[in-house]
Specification:
Elements: H1 19-36, H2 42-45, H3 60-76, E1 87-93, E2 101-112, E3 119-126, E4 129-136, E5 142-149, H4 215-218, H5 221-227, H6 242-246, H7 250-270
Antiparallel strand pairs: 1-2, 1-5, 2-3, 3-4
Helix pairs in contact: 1-7
């Protein structure tokens, strides 16, 4: 009879064959979450501090150097909390303008990339023309970032607003900030936008967006007969390691939160700044 070779799990501490170790690790994580006052929306508030979803592009030394640089930059620039769907105003330096600065107000439709390369895009309709500006979050020309209205949307990507009616992307440049009560959950705007008649920039009716009203009904009869409401990303339901590959790891979030709190405490103790870096409106931090 041939010998059977037992190959240990790569993550032995969470392996189902070792329930004692998995239970102990779970209790340790829960204890750390209570000590650090973990923010549940950390991946949405601080997407720039997440690891790259492409595993072979992760470099621990590069991530550590960028992490320290991002914390230092946050001590000089107040970066408020905002989500995709929030109304944000950004003031940048512009040497060719008389006031030497430019202020743009719009709805945040995207937040992408990690580290120092993190970008967010604002959209507004000006004189009937849709304008989108992509900003690097850590661009040194940014003077000020303001969250005029803090809220979320049904989707984490609002790129479909480019094909929506103009009223969903029109905001006053003189809009007054709306204060968010500290300690209360960030509201989710349940609005569902209506798209203009096709053709569109993308096949929105085939994507799993919750914030579009009647995209399938507006598509042409040819597409209705051919696809039968089949979504492009239906295959994700059968991807068994999707969360493992692209999801945010709780251990990494706790590690980042601990470093942010330590850095903030050191700067406050030394008297360099009194600015809060680790904060959340919902958690009243």
């Amino acid at each position: 009879m041939a010998a059977v070779q037992v190959i240990p799990c790569r993550k032995s501490s969470t392996c189902p064959s070792r329930p004692a170790e998995a239970s102990k690790r779970g209790s340790d994580l829960k204890k750390r979450m209570e000590e650090l006052k973990h923010i549940p929306d950390f991946p949405l508030i601080y997407p720039d501090f997440l690891q790259s979803p492409v595993w072979n592009r992760r470099n621990s030394l590069k991530e550590e150097l960028e992490f320290q640089d991002m914390l230092e930059r946050r001590t000089h620039l107040d970066i408020p909390e905002f989500f995709v769907g929030s109304i944000v105003a950004v003031t940048t330096s512009e040497k060719y303008m008389g006031s030497k600065e430019h202020r743009f107000v719009g709805i945040c439709i995207r937040r992408e990339k990690q580290g120092l390369h993190h970008q967010f895009t604002l959209r507004n309709v000006i004189d009937g023309i849709g304008v989108e500006i992509m900003y690097d979050l850590y661009n040194p020309t940014i003077r000020k970032i303001e969250t005029l209205k803090l809220e979320k949307r049904l989707d984490t990507d609002l790129s479909y607003l480019v094909d929506a009616l103009p009223e969903y992307s029109t905001f006053d440049f003189h809009m007054e900030p709306i204060a968010h009560p500290a300690g209360t959950p960030v509201p989710v705007n349940p609005i569902r936008v209506k798209l203009r008649p096709p053709p569109w920039c993308r096949r929105w009716e085939l994507l799993d967006y919750k914030g579009i009203d009647g995209a399938w009904e507006q598509s042409t009869p040819y597409f209705k007969r051919k696809f039968h409401k089949t979504k492009i990303n239906d295959y994700l339901r059968y991807d068994l390691i999707a969360d493992y590959r692209i999801g945010s790891e709780l251990e990494h979030e706790l590690k980042v939160e601990e470093k942010m709190q330590r850095f903030e405490k050191e700067r406050h103790t030394a008297g360099f700044t009194r600015r809060r870096i680790f904060r959340s409106a919902a958690a009243s931090r």
